[in-house]
Protein 1
Amino acid sequence: MVIKISEKFPCILAKNVEYTYSSGSLALKDINLSIFKGELVAIMGKNGAGKTTLIRTFNGLIQPSKGNVLINGIKTDSKTIAELSKNVGIIFQNPMHQLFSNTIEEEIKFSLKNLDLSDEEIQTRTNDILKNFNLEKYRKRSPLNLSGGETKKLAIASIFCRNPDILVFDEPTLGQDAREIVFFTNLIKRELDKGKTIVIVTHNIEFAMQHVPRIILMADGRIIADGPTRSVLNKEFLAEKTSLILPQITLFKRAMQESGIQSQDVIHSKTEMITFLKNFIKNNETKIKEEN
Ligand SMILES: Nc1ncnc2c1ncn2[C@@H]1O[C@H](COP(=O)(O)OP(=O)(O)O)[C@@H](O)[C@H]1O
Ligand SMILES: [Mg+2]
């Protein structure tokens, strides 16, 4: 197998990062992490753990009090937020905080400013992105008059139109209905196929189990675990320490165990559980027949 060098290049690197808010709150403590090009990673942990503070260091919105953050090998303190935003697009939890134009079309055009594009290119990109996000019909509408789901879509579109190679989402599935979560899931799959790097801050453990291969778990300003999703989220003490609601499948396995049915640790998905249960029923039917 040929490994492209770029695949092993940490596009986000944090070295001994510490951050203290002016209020004196020490929000990040000795953070060390490498996220590689093309990876999909989730940052999880309870409220106040430091997740949002950490992602704000990725595009220079805040500079570490100690240590360094490097994006594509370059320290964030040597670039402006505007320059960093060309590489790192952050979609924040409350989309209203990042929208301020009079119409949806203007919102996208505003975001495309400072990218050295001609007026014609700006118009083409705006049309394309509105079409891709199914927002064309709202072109002249104010961002204030959209539904919650549409506002989130617009916030994502206003970052995507800039085509950054690193995309960071803060709680993207929060308050979204099932259809909107499917839309989001397909969206990130398409971006991964294009080679983008994606970081998602989320409490949604079912989503993480199903779609995200690597979890960085934070508690009290520190990274307390970083590894493959199944092994990080299987350690119940970690999930409990970080107040994560355990996946339904884990709770179901626990209940089975309590009632004397020994399932296996390798069961993590619905399909695996169904296979296990089918075999379990079959074996028990055979046993009952033999006993009779
Ligand atoms: N603007 C701010 N000023 C002062 N303290 C803050 C600010 N934002 C966050 N904090 C504090 O920093 C810590 C980490 O917060 P945050 O990064 O928002 O956590 P999370 O996103 O994991 O919920 C918390 O103790 C929080 O109260
Ligand atoms: Mg947060």
Note: The mean pLDDT is 90.
Protein 2
Amino acid sequence: MKIDDSGCLFWCGTHNANGYAIVCFNYRNYLVSRLICWIFLDLDVDNLKIFALHNCRNTGCINIKHLYMSDQSDNMQDRYRDTPHWATKKTHCKRGHEFTPENIYWAEGHRKCLTCKRMQSKARHDKENEKRRKEQGTIETTDLNGNVVIKAIRKVVHGDAHI
Ligand SMILES: [Zn+2]
Ligand SMILES: [Zn+2]
């Protein structure tokens, strides 16, 4: 489970095509958000007339504080439940990475490219490390998953900080 700045809890397991966290139980798929509401709010999971809605608009979010029950799905929720037309047409992100199930995550009801996100955080990391390297003579490189792959520390000897 991951938590983001807005407090949304992201399910690291399976998501359905609309970005909802799902879990398989007794050969049936359940929306995790419904199960959470069942546990904390006594939702009858088999009563499909009661919806577990997100007030944070993150369909993949399973934070009980962001969930509420309603006997009608609100318009916004409807919009997110049915994949928007523009999203179904798009098969690649703006940088040309393919939208495969492994390469997408959902934020604010939209599909986002995981590769781009990793590239961005790697670029940020590299920038920070470059700054650190200049300051302390430290070099650190991360792979696309953010793991440290090379870490070498050179002491500034005789005022020479080159690596
Ligand atoms: Zn949330
Ligand atoms: Zn991308």
Note: The pocket of zinc ion (ligand 1) is lined by residues 8, 54, 56, 58, 61, 63, 66 (CB under 6 Å).
